[in-house]
Design goal:
Chain B: GO terms for molecular function: protein folding chaperone. The complex is a heterodimer. Chain A is mostly helical. Chain A has 5 helices and no strands. Chain A has a domain of 73 residues: Orthogonal Bundle (Non-ribosomal Peptide Synthetase Peptidyl Carrier Protein, Chain A), CATH 1.10.1200.10. Chain A is globular, with a radius of gyration of 24 Å. A two-stranded antiparallel sheet of chain B has the order 1-2. The chains are: A mainly alpha, B mainly alpha.
Chain lengths: 114, 128
């Protein structure tokens, strides 16, 4: 008897989930990475804005070499990509990124890219 | 050679990032300094001497450090007031605190004190 009344006294009031609030709750296990299409579009936009690529048709399958870009040009593009997605690409990754496809896959696998 | 190349690209990217951070709101200066970095790196593209490349990379890193630690960009807020757009954090540019040594009794070293009191020239063979 006593324990029952005590239980009712100290019962924790849990917030009730209202309809429409479910979208505000994010599970940490959920995948909130950017979609491939969005990443591709944004990267292609960044590359086509670069002076040496102006007027060229850039496709996701192009390598930087095919776009006639040297290592300094690709570094320029990667800095612009960093700014676009709010990230910093480590030096060892910079060496591995040699094409538009590599750039897209790096951004896709970076959870902090926004 | 590949490692050196990666260092050069790394220093170039670091310099560009720093310039973007420091001159973020000053588009004219940002365009100028970015162009200058690009031009200078391209001018020295044919350098093959590892020692010279290393010197130039160190110079670029020093420029990045200088811009980050010793430059403040003031923005005109009103006709008479200037302010900064971002918070500056200068870490490590303060002189190191001198640690005071505990004072103890003055001890006279054994043998020659080096003052020439023993009659010989300090440092000569006669001076112990």
């Amino acid at each position: 008897m006593l324990s029952r009344s005590f239980k009712s006294l100290v019962q924790i009031q849990r917030p009730v989930l209202m309809a429409g609030q479910s979208s505000m709750i994010r599970s940490f296990s959920s995948d909130h990475r950017l979609s491939e299409k969005e990443v591709t579009d944004r990267i292609l936009e960044v590359i086509s804005k670069y002076d040496k690529c102006a007027g060229k048709s850039v496709s996701p399958s192009d390598t930087f070499k095919e776009l006639e870009l040297d290592s300094l040009d690709s570094a320029d593009i990667l800095v612009a990509v960093e700014e676009e997605f709010g990230i910093e690409i480590p030096d060892e990754e910079v060496d591995r990124i040699t094409s538009v496809k590599d750039t897209i896959s790096y951004i896709r696998k970076t959870p902090t890219a926004k | 050679m590949n490692q050196l190349r990666s260092r050069v690209i790394g220093s170039y990217m670091r310099l560009l990032r720093t310039e973007k951070l420091v001159f973020n709101n000053d588009k004219a200066t940002l365009a100028k300094v970015t162009q200058q970095a690009r031009t200078q790196y391209r001018e020295n593209k044919s350098v093959e001497d590892p020692v010279k490349i290393d010197e130039m990379v160190q110079h670029a890193d020093a420029v990045s450090d200088f811009l980050l630690t010793s430059t403040i960009q003031a923005v005109k807020k009103t006709d008479t007031k200037f302010g900064t757009e971002r918070l500056y954090e200068f870490v490590g540019d303060q002189p190191k605190k001198r640690v005071r040594q505990a004072k103890g009794p003055i001890t006279i070293p054994e043998g020659c004190c080096g003052g020439g009191a023993c009659g010989s020239t300090p440092g000569s063979s006669g001076c112990s």
